Amino acid sequence: MLPDHLKEQSAAVAVDAFDADAIQGGKSEHGELTLEIAPAKIASVCGFLKYDQKFVRVSTVTAVDRYPAEPRFEIVYHLHSIERNERLRLKCRLAGADAAIDSVTGVWRGANWYEREVFDLFGVRFLKHPDLRRILMPDDWEGHPLRKDYPIMGPRA
Amino acid sequence: MSEPSLPELVIAEEEQSPTGGRRMVLNMGPQHPSTHGVLRLLLELDGETIVSCQPDIGFLHTGIEKEFEVKNYQQAVTLTDRVDYLAPLSMNLGYCLAVEKLLQLEIPPQAQWMRVMLTELTRLNSHLVWLGTHALDIGAMTVFLYCFREREEILKIFEQFSGQRMMTSYFRIGGLALEPPRGWHERIKTFLDIFPSRIDEYENLLTNNRIWIGRTKGIGVISLEDMLDLGVTGPMLRAAGLKMDTRKDAPYSSYEKFDFDVPTRTENDVYARYLVRLEEMRQSVRIVRQAMDGMPPGPWKADAPHVVLPDREKMKTQMEALIYHFKIVTEGFRVPEGEVYQVIESPRGELGFYVVSDGTTNPYRVHMRTPSFGNLQAVPKMVEGILIADVIASIGSMDFVLGDTDR
Asked: DSSP label at B10?
């Protein structure tokens, strides 16, 4: 169900019309629109936004670790529509235990490295990703440095 | 940083290709001089033709995004310099704008114009290094020496402003780090008077040079659709005819008050990218001149005592200023809870700062969407099917910085 304060945002209305269960919340702050999407729907919503709503670019995919709160991970997608000159932020919340979400590489090939980066630094797996390997850290590295429970200095927990 | 399982330091692994030709895997980098830093490309060759390419990055990963989380907001400015070390002021600007958006700070006009002026000088600086090294890779050594001669002048200007040649950290949250130095006007004017003729000089050396044209025209073509899909931004897109420039599309720091063009070409090859960047240099000169001539008077930092350090004189004479000074230096300042994504146009393309605040004095999370990372992703698409000699020209035309890629 689309919250009332998003009813004037055309992108939010369009996503809601596409799939009424997709939007779980959202906000518009500092002139930036954020939509919270049900994690299971992310690939289909992104496909809709790209092909129907002209968000031809994914600017970046990243994550925020809310440890120790649950659901722990926020996967954040920044989309960009050149034609509409508009940006949109999508957010999916994932529980910490064995966090995994569908990859959007099928929609934008450019999401490939960004998802690998999130996998590398946060340990979130992307399902159906063509090449899910570490990208910045060495292959044999243990742990995921951008997690909040990863120590800044001293031995790794 | 990853595999295909190659024996350590073995240059080539050969196997019989289905076409009958012998295939070879060539390890280019991470210490190859034309990769400008530490990029490793695994090239699979059939004769001299690239069959497939796999970039391997991460050699320069220093965990800067993690480090943001233990610095307070003002301290973290110094981290941004070190990401894209050829355009430190662009990095400063992106970060400061993002935090200022969270703080809802109003930045006085002089600071905004100063920021525009110095960011454009940074663009010149970055493009000069690009042009020099790109030409050097292809075999034109003179251009390199000429470019670094002019770059030296720009670095001296930065030194005059900030005391630092490269890691300037001159933009701070709330304005500038220091008052603009006496005599900056003359210095920049001297530079601007001479610089356009220097661009002509580079053009004389390259634009109609038969070797240059032979090495760059029709090389490194990649379709616009592929580039958009793969996350390429900046001059690469503009050389393919797409007029995408954040300075025009979503102006920041009063770019809307400046009169400049966004150059585009349609040939979409290495030569077109060269022409686009040269024209961008001319446009940057226009912007710097407008900023210099029309520099608005007034304060150079925001009137926000809880964020901006007080003047030295006030700090020594006024109790209140002393308390603020003490608070900001020891503890930092609190930033309201929220998140912003600030995008600016760096010399390399779209630079995004995603800053999340939880209401404390340190950023909760900072993610940098750096243009080099996005651009590099298109390397395989660009080089597959071309000759190995053209790989150098192709990746040179992308203008990536590995610090910017690996963060």
From this structure: -
Give the separation between CA B187 and CA B310, rounded to whole angstroms.
28
Over chain A, what is the mean pLDDT? 87
DSSP symbol at A4: G
Residue B83 neighbours by CB distance under 10 Å: 25
Residue at B343: amino acid letter: V
Give the chain A residue nearest B105 (alpha carbons): A30
Question: What is chain B's Cα-based Rg?
Answer: 23
Which residues in chain A (93-122) have CB-CB distances under 8 A to chain B?
108-110, 112-114, 121
Distances (CA, A) of A139 to A98, A131, B12, B89, B361: 20, 13, 22, 33, 34
The verdict on a CB contact (< 8 Å) between B340 and A30 is yes
- H helices of B8-140, in order, are 64-68, 77-81, 88-103, 109-138
pLDDT of B187 strictly over 50: yes
List residues of chain B with CB under 8 Å from any CB of chain A: 1-3, 57-58, 61, 63, 65-66, 69-70, 101-102, 228-231, 242, 244, 249-250, 338-341, 343, 350, 352, 354, 356, 364-365, 367, 369, 373-374, 376-377, 406-407
Torsion angle, CA of A41/A45/A47/A50, rounded to 10 degrees?
-160
CA B28/CA B212 separation, integer angstroms: 23
Residues 6+ apart with CB under 8 A from B231: A57, A58, A59, A108, A110, A113, A114, B373, B374, B375, B377, B378
Distance, in Å, from the CA atom of B282 to the CA atom of B275, rounded to the nearest integer, reads 11
pTM: 0.89
Can you list the domains of chain B with their CATH numbers?
64-372 (1.10.645.10)
Put simply, whether A147 touches B (Cβ < 8 Å) is: no
pLDDT > 60? residue B289: yes
- How many angstroms separate the Cα of B339 from the Cα of each of B141, B335, B356? 47, 10, 4
Distance CA B244, CA B331 (A): 41
**DSSP letter for each residue of B51-69:** EEEEEE--TT---HHHHHT
**Neighbouring residues of B87: CB distance < 8 A, sequence distance ≥ 6:** B122, B123, B125, B126, B346, B347, B348, B401
- What are chain A's domains? 4-98 (3.30.460.80)
Name beta bridge partners: B345. Answer: B350
Q: Provide the pLDDT confidence category of residue B12 given band limits of 50, 70 and 90.
A: very low
Helix axes B109-138, B88-103, angle to 10 degrees: 150
Q: How far apart are CA B22 and CA B4, in angstroms?
A: 19
- Residue B35 — pLDDT band, cuts 50, 70, 90? low
Most B-contacting residue of A74, A105, A135, A147 (CB-CB within 10 A), to test interface: A135
Averaged confidence pLDDT in chain B? 87
- Provide the pLDDT for residue B323: 92
* A28 close contact with B: CB closer than 8 A: no
